[in-house]
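Human:
I keep going back and forth on a fold encoding question. Comparing notes only helps if you start from a blank page. Show me how you would write down a chain together with its backbone fold. Write it directly below this note and I will take it from there.

Assistant:
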Amino acid sequence: MKHQDPCGGREADVHLLLDTGTSATTIYSDVADQLSIDLERAKKARVQVVGGEVLEAHVVPLDRLTIGPHTRRNVHVVVVPHRGPAARYHGLLGMDVLRGLKYRVDFKKQVILWE
């Protein structure tokens, strides 16, 4: 995923975990920090995660989100705090971004193959 801020031109390359059960693409707050997203001004939300826990979150607009060869413009992502040990990924890639795209998953190599 890449996000570019129209004013500062900030981008971040991040690894998102494919989660077909997630309706909204989610990033951890440290990614929002890298992009200089002001969470104090962001819309607040409560999101339910696997296991039923409800987290305080923020919904932020991104002017551009690039996944593989595809770019989505003017998308919103959910920002949540990361808890626990360091993760190998920076959030979850949800169906809001994947919907309508042609892809398949190579489970052996653990990658998305774009068609």
Residues 2-7 have pLDDT under 50 and may be disordered.
